[in-house]
Design goal:
- It is a single chain.
- It is built from nine helices and 17 strands.
- By secondary structure, the chain is of the alpha/beta class.
- The structure holds nicotinamide-adenine-dinucleotide (NAD).
- The site of nicotinamide-adenine-dinucleotide has 26 residues, from helix 1.
Length: 348
């Protein structure tokens, strides 16, 4: 089996990140990078060939896989060209601007007989993998709510992300990852979806969204992102009949909380709070709550490429499958529709 020889087109932020990662993965040879901006190529690693366009790289470089990391609207054209040259393809997210466009890309790559996958590598984020483990093992019993939250302070998005025609806005950006994680975690169809999509301080592109997805297994997932929340946070919450699991931070810091005994039908104890007396929402009696550590997981973004290598060598199926990418794009279209009409969308 020939080794994996990679060419990256679009050597900006993500192109550089992937090139850095390749230094740590022996089985992938980064052979070439291409970018139309010569400034970006100045710090390409010494042993890597540099090209001023994708066309030149496809013609001249001895590569078998292309990673497409150019801005969003160019992905379709890049996929077409790479497939025509018979190269396997890892495309940056969002793979396409619409579901219809993505369907065409799948058709084109199928006909060309090349692997087509998308860099939805945040399935290997540590915080997500911990929560997936909690979900898979039913650590907190029957679950009813899963919340994924991401808040920032930099409301003004950078570079081309502020232009709608460039596929800007946060739904096309982090939205892809946050939706992909939830769809990867919850093994059920979606019953209905309701969403809000707002431009809080940006003129033309979304910088806040809340998505509620009710799944057919009874679980509701809530995704909320705000770039102008002014309290930076990456958080998860899973609520179940045997406890709560929570994470605060990309490194997966958090805990599982259980009660020493489940509530019996006891007479209400009155607690005084600043908002007056309550029997249900006072502080817990001493010793009621027990804290446990979250499961340990090993996860990092190299895992994405390790799986890709196995698929490339026909040892396993590709992990980020076109039908999964399509489902994320379908949810994104439903989010836009729900936000536009104010209605819940029923599908699947
Ligand atoms: N998977 C992730 O976690 C992740 C993170 C960031 C960005 N991305 C995605 O990566 C892609 C690139 O984003 P970025 O932040 O690196 O953007 P960027 O602007 O930093 O880099 C894009 C590069 O593409 C080059 N380019 C533009 N048109 C080109 C063309 N026709 N031929 C060759 N090069 C061309 C630009 O000169 C630039 O260097 C986007 O699709 C984005 O959504 C993914």
């Amino acid at each position: 089996m020939a080794g994996m020889k990679l060419g990256i087109v679009g050597f900006g932020f993500m192109g550089h990140c992937v090139a850095q990662l390749m230094l740590t993965i022996e089985e992938i040879d980064l052979i070439a990078v291409a970018d139309t901006n010569p400034e970006q190529l100045k710090d390409a690693p010494g042993d890597v060939q540099v090209y001023g366009s994708m066309e030149e790289m496809l013609k001249q470089a001895d590569i078998n896989v292309v990673m497409i990391s150019t801005p969003n609207p160019s992905h379709f054209e890049m996929v077409e060209k790479a497939a025509a040259a018979g190269k396997h393809i890892i495309c940056e997210k969002p793979a396409a601007m619409t579901v219809a466009q993505f369907d065409q890309m799948v058709e084109i790559t199928k006909k060309a007989g090349v692997i087509f996958t998308v860099h939805q590598q945040r399935r290997w984020d540590k915080d997500y993998r911990i929560m997936k483990e909690v979900y898979d093992k039913q650590t907190v019993g029957d679950m009813y709510i899963i919340k994924s939250q991401l808040y920032g302070v930099n409301g003004n998005m950078h570079d081309w992300h502020v232009y709608p025609e460039m596929g800007g806005g946060m739904l096309y950006d982090w939205g892809v990852h946050l939706i992909d994680q939830i769809l990867d975690m919850i093994d059920a169809k979606i019953d209905s979806l309701y969403a809000e999509l707002r431009n809080v301080i940006n003129e033309k592109v979304d910088d806040y969204f809340k998505i509620l997805m009710k799944f057919k297994n009874g679980i509701t997932a809530e995704i909320e992102l705000g770039t102008y929340y002014l309290t930076p946070k990456r958080a998860w919450f899973i609520g179940g009949t045997e406890g709560s699991a929570l994470i605060d931070g990309f490194a997966g810091e958090g805990k599982i909380i259980r009660t020493r005994h489940l509530l019996e039908n006891v007479p209400g104890k009155i607690s005084m709070t600043a908002a007056g007396p309550t029997r249900s929402f006072g502080p817990p009696e001493p010793g009621l709550l027990i804290e446990e550590p979250l499961p340990e997981v090993n996860a990092d973004h190299r895992n994405y490429f390790e799986h890709f290598i196995k698929a490339f060598n026909h040892e396993e199926e590709i992990m980020v499958k076109p039908e999964q990418v399509r489902r994320v794009l379908c949810v994104m279209e439903a989010v836009r529709e729900s936000a536009r009409t104010g209605d819940a969308i029923h599908f699947e």
